[in-house]
TrEMBL record:
Residues 1-29 are annotated as: Disordered. Its main location: membrane. Residues 38-569 form the Major facilitator superfamily (MFS) profile domain. Residues 1-22 have a biased composition (Polar residues). Keywords: Antibiotic resistance, Membrane, Transmembrane, Transmembrane helix. GO terms for cellular component: plasma membrane. Signal peptide: none annotated. GO terms for biological process: response to antibiotic. This is Major facilitator superfamily (MFS) profile domain-containing protein. Pfam families: MFS_1. It is a multi-pass membrane protein. GO terms for molecular function: transmembrane transporter activity. It is found in: Cell membrane.
Length: 583
């Protein structure tokens, strides 16, 4: 997942440095002798950012249990990071061009490190949410500088190697994120549990700050665009008005004000578009170059990108809830279960860009979408057949297929979306695609409240009703209660299960679950076994609904791909150096 967004960033940085005239590759100045040491700092920082985007997923249920947080708070921990990251990416690039890339990189690293510490010591859910949101914003300042500094630090001959190493780091972070998160939580060093996921960033960040200040050379864009603070505020307000009701709606009982906010967000975003036109007339420095949308393939491509990553946002968070909350798997097991997906994505991430798309064009991506749908369909079949008895091995092949399909679509997507954009606007175009990707993740994660949790009570009711006849028989046979008492216990169990499913916090025990018929030790043991099974089945049913929605999303993406260019444009404009390795 992180690979594609970094691919987009590389194109943006590469073109920006050319169009602003910051080209150190012409041989007019000696190479920085500390450039490889600087690259090490940049790659480690990029690795932490990419890792943090996924590593928190597998630790989220542990955070929820310890902090007593509701499901919406955990969604905020994951979605808030992506949303803040998306909304500060373009601004972060501008800040680096104006005030210095080294300076803004160090500011971003400092903010990321401090927020990692704040998240690691958080005692309340709101503290963790705030820390994660600010951490995402810090990443939005840090990440654009990484590729910018690489571009201006290395010459043509070395730049390809530097960008290849950056791509390798991105692939490793995407591959290891979930597994490493599970390992850190399971390790529970010094009793820190999930907190180690964030605290491990602190010493690395401090070393990066000290060492980076010594080895990174400062650079600026000689003709940098001006800041557009009003544009950032309008865009942020518009998307927060859209995402906040989706995240909090279930917990607040879906108030009318939430729907009003979502409707009004369209007006705010329309106001943002109007301001961008005005900003273009005033000084030619809009946050988003609206002229880009005259390129039909680019406009359609942004729609494909947003919809696709909204589906992935739903899948990744819903998958975590399904494995750890529904099936009761440990973080370690959940992380290791993700490896087939990660391996599949890693295999096709490189081959799709280097071989498949250059040779077959968009058809390769459409085949990838079909493979993704096959993987999702097979996962639906496995989850439906085995329910709470599903094992990691049983879903390995579906996950591998999903990973293969994801890697084939995601990695070349930003490149082919921008392939018909005029070269003078390629930097702005790629920046918008990158932001669009993160917004898609955020919107998809917010939709979990509707698609996943929207049916959890109904699924629980159906699964409990299916269990009741067998439960009554087992209570009479094993707990040695009368048929009349078995009926009372079964009714109490049903009420308890439905009330628990209705709770916004999985750790809350409803009063109906502490009634007298359920207190007997033998009864509690039997009911507990049935309860665990029905939770697994109910979450499995909700996840299957989500997978069906993702199949629908992927089908729409498949159709919209016909609006993309048939081939990835390969040629370089005359007089420009070959920097294909950067993308």
């Amino acid at each position: 997942m992180a690979i594609s967004s970094e691919q987009a960033s590389s194109v943006e940085t590469e073109v920006d440095s050319r169009t602003t005239g910051a080209d150190p590759t012409a041989g007019d100045r000696p190479l920085d002798p500390r450039r490889w040491a600087a690259l090490l700092v940049l790659l480690v920082s990029a690795f932490l950012d990419l890792l943090d985007g996924t590593i928190a997923n597998v630790a989220a249920p542990s955070m929820q249990r310890e902090l007593g947080a509701g499901y919406s708070a955990i969604q905020w921990v994951l979605v808030g990071y992506q949303l803040a990251f998306a909304l500060t990416l373009i601004l972060g690039g501008r800040l680096g061009d104006i005030y210095g890339r080294k300076k803004m990189f160090l500011v971003g690293v400092a903010g990321f490190t401090l927020c990692s510490l704040a998240a690691g010591i958080a005692q309340e859910p709101w503290q963790l949410v705030v820390a994660r949101v600010v951490q995402g914003a810090s990443s939005g300042v840090m990440v654009p500088q990484v590729l910018s500094i690489i571009h201006v630090t290395f010459n043509d001959k070395e730049r390809g190697t530097a960008f290849a190493l950056h791509g390798l780091v991105g692939g490793l972070a995407a591959t290891l994120g979930l597994a490493l998160g599970g390992l850190l939580v399971e390790w529970n060093l010094f009793g820190l549990d999930w907190r180690l996921v964030f605290l491990v960033n602190v010493p690395v960040g401090l070393v990066g700050l000290v060492y980076g200040a010594k080895v990174i050379t400062e650079s600026k864009a000689p003709q940098a665009l001006r800041l557009d603070i009003r544009g950032v505020v309008l865009l942020t307000l518009g998307f927060v008005m859209l995402v906040f009701p989706l995240l909090q709606g279930r917990e607040m009982g879906w108030p009318v004000l939430g729907f009003v906010s979502m409707g009004a967000s369209v007006l705010v975003i329309a106001g943002f578009v109007a301001w961008q036109r005005e900003k273009t007339r005033r000084d030619g420095s809009p946050l988003v170059e609206l002229g880009l949308f005259r390129t039909r393939s680019y406009s359609a491509g942004l729609g494909v990108n947003l919809i696709f990553y909204a589906g992935m946002g739903m899948f990744t968070i819903g998958w975590t809830l399904y494995m750890q909350v529904g099936q009761g798997w440990s973080p370690m097991r959940a992380g290791l279960t993700s490896l087939p997906f990660c391996v599949g994505a890693f295999l096709t991430a490189t081959s799709s860009v280097m071989i498949l798309v250059p040779k077959f064009g968009r058809k390769a991506m459409q085949i990838g979408a079909v493979v993704l749908m096959v993987g999702l369909g097979s996962y639906i079949w496995v989850a439906g057949k085995y329910g709470h008895d599903v094992t990691s091995w049983k879903i390995a092949i579906p996950l591998f297929l999903v990973g293969l399909g994801f890697g084939t679509v995601a990695t070349p997507l930003p490149l082919i979306v921008t392939s018909e954009v005029p070269h003078e606007h390629a930097g702005s175009a790629s920046g918008v695609v990158n932001t669009n990707t993160q917004l898609g993740f955020a919107i998809g994660g917010a939709l979990i409240s509707v698609i996943f949790f929207g049916g959890i009570v109904g699924n629980t009711t159906d699964n409990v009703d299916h269990q009741l006849p067998q439960l009554r028989k087992e209570l009479v046979a094993s707990a040695q209660v009368t048929p009349g008492d078995a009926d009372k216990i079964a009714a109490a169990y049903r009420t308890c299960a439905i009330d628990r499913a209705s709770e916004k916090d999985a750790s809350v025990v409803p009063a109906s679950c502490t009634v007298q018929p359920l207190r007997d030790a033998k009864v509690a043991q039997i009911v507990g076994t049935y309860g665990k099974a029905q939770v697994g089945d109910s979450f499995s049913d909700s996840f299957r609904t989500l997978l069906k929605a993702f199949i629908g999303v992927t089908a729409v993406v498949l159709l919209l791909m016909f609006a993309l260019p048939k081939r990835l444009r390969q040629e370089q404009p005359a007089g420009e150096p070959e920097t294909a390795a950067a993308s």
